[in-house]
């Protein structure tokens, strides 16, 4: 049987950056708090978490890429909240946030998790920012730890081979 690679949920020793937006700050500050709590609960030192404030979700990929490219972080958590309005603006901003974050992670080789809410209403945003549908900032932080440690496990097996 082949090998199974898995992440571990330990963030001890990790250095993490969070990029969060000023847009919809009421929601995004809750996502940021959720992400920080999850990271610390899983062993990341509070002093090892840096936060960069981007204007809006459209700028998140650019800032995430910048943080990743410094080489100072094991991973980046991207947080924001795009709420659908009456115009197609939502689709451009939300689309760029999602594809831009994915491209930044691919191009830099640094894991970047996606905790940008894309919702129709403010109520849906509140539900996902620490109320009845959980906290997507927390989920993004956990996904990041899992991805970082999964990559380490793959790297270790390559070194052993
Ligand atoms: N930015 C957001 O983060 N959320 C939104 O809901 C939003 N809306 O609705 O427009 C938004 N727009 C700003 C955008 O992200 C850029 O900051 C702006 O276009 C300047 O580049």
Molecular structure report:
With 161 residues, the protein is α/β, with parallel strands linked by helices. The chain has one domain: Lumazine/riboflavin synthase (Rossmann fold). It is built from five helices and six strands; from the N terminus they run βαβαβαβαββα. It has helices at residues 25-41, 60-69, 89-108, 122-127, 136-160; strands spanning 16-21, 49-54, 75-83, 112-119, 129-131, 134-135. The strands form two sheets. A four-stranded parallel beta sheet has the order 2-1-3-4, sandwiched between helices. The relative contact order is 0.22. The structure holds 5-nitro-6-ribityl-amino-2,4(1H,3H)-pyrimidinedione.
Task: List descriptors.
161 residues, alpha/beta, Rossmann fold, 4-stranded parallel β-sheet, two-stranded antiparallel ribbon, 5 helices, 6 strands, binds 5-nitro-6-ribityl-amino-2,4(1H,3H)-pyrimidinedione
Mean pLDDT: 96
* Binned strand content: 15-25%
The helix content, as a percent range, equals 40-55%
| Unreliable spans | none
Number of separate domains? 1
Radius of gyration: 16 Å
The chain-level structural class is alpha/beta
CATH architecture call: 3-Layer(aba) Sandwich
How many helices? 5
Main sheet properties: 4 strands, parallel
CATH H-level superfamily: Lumazine/riboflavin synthase
Give the bound compounds. 5-nitro-6-ribityl-amino-2,4(1H,3H)-pyrimidinedione
Write the element-wise H/E pattern from the N-terminal end onward: EHEHEHEHEEH
Shape: globular
Please write the CATH class name: Alpha Beta
According to DSSP, the number of beta strands is 6
